Amino acid sequence: MEKGLERSLLSQIRETFGGGDVDIRTYSPVTLAYIGDAVFELIIRTLIVEKGQRAANTLHKHTTKVVCAQTQAKMIDAVYDTLTEEEQDIYRRSKNTKLHSTAKNASLADYRKATGFEALCGYLFLEDDVERITQLVKQAVDTAQVEL
Fold first, then answer.
1. pLDDT tens digits, one per residue of 32-58
2. Fold classification of 28-143 (topology level)
3. Where in the chain are the domains?
4. Active-site position among 21, 23, 37, 142
5. What is the C-alpha R_g of the chain?
6. What was the pLDDT predicted at 118?
7. Cα dihedral sign, 3-48-73-33
8. Whole-model pTM?
9. Rounded-to-integer distance, Cα 105 and Cα 69, Å
10. 37: annotated active-site residue
11. How many Cα neighbours within 13 Å face the side chain of 90?
């Protein structure tokens, strides 16, 4: 396939397996955070893997330092003011949702912020706006000075 004509991962998944018929505005914040967690982790894992060949244990340690509530809370704090009104609304709604799990090794405030950030990533992914997700993650990594 020619450069620039690639289909997104989401469009390939939908084309192969079907789906995409649900209005994502009807998804719960927890559902958005569920998919957003995976999307965010995939971005971070890709960035870490592309830094060079390392043992799987080392890759995992680097990943878990970034894909955790404390770091995600720091990242969303760093970019919140640059979010669109719609993105802020999705983040706030998700951050304030009733959670049915507890924070592991994180304050409740950081856990809620991380959930909101993941939900925003999930929403953008399901909107097929990978460009915006990567832009936000890049900005958050840079502004919050997250070491990869």
1. 999 999 999 999 999 999 988 889 999
2. Ribonuclease iii, N-terminal Endonuclease Domain; Chain A (1.10.1520)
3. 28-143
4. 37
5. 16
6. 97
7. positive
8. 0.90
9. 8
10. yes
11. 26
